[in-house]
Amino acid sequence: MRKILILPYAEQDIKDSVSHYKDQGHGLEKHFLKIIDQAFRIIAENPSSFPYIKKRIRKFVIKDFPFCIFYIFHEETIYILAVFHNKRNPKIWKSRVK
């Protein structure tokens, strides 16, 4: 399996989302983390199968939550750039890409 490297901004995206869902109650934060983990495994199994959205950046759409995962696949490593809510301004995650 390919190596996944979650960049600091993406890690913060996850932490913020977990905190939000924890505040909602009903164990949503646990379900969110489970779905994110599954998404990472799917991406790792076949990283080239998801569409490019900008140059080398690919997008994985999460089914159970309104989020997308943006990543770059380079030399057997998957760099997670963002785990991003669909209603947030995309300029935020795009500003992370250099």
Provide structural commentary.
This protein is of the alpha+beta class and 98 residues long. It has one domain (3-94): YaeB-like fold (2-Layer Sandwich), CATH 3.30.2310.20. 41% of the residues lie in helices and 30% in strands. It has helices at residues 8-24, 28-45, 90-94, and strands at 3-6, 52-54, 57-61, 67-74, 77-85. Strands 1-5-4-3-2 form a 5-stranded mixed beta sheet. It is globular, with a radius of gyration of 13 Å. It starts with a strand and ends with a helix.
Which descriptors would you attach to this protein?
YaeB-like fold, 3 helices, alpha+beta, 98 residues, single chain
Helix content: 40-55%
Within the CATH hierarchy, at the fold level, what is the topology? YaeB-like fold
CATH class: Alpha Beta
Quaternary state of this entry equals: single chain
β-strand percent reads 25-35%
CATH architecture: 2-Layer Sandwich
Strand segment tally: 5
State the gist of this model.
The chain is 41% helix and 30% strand. It has 98 residues and is of the alpha+beta class.
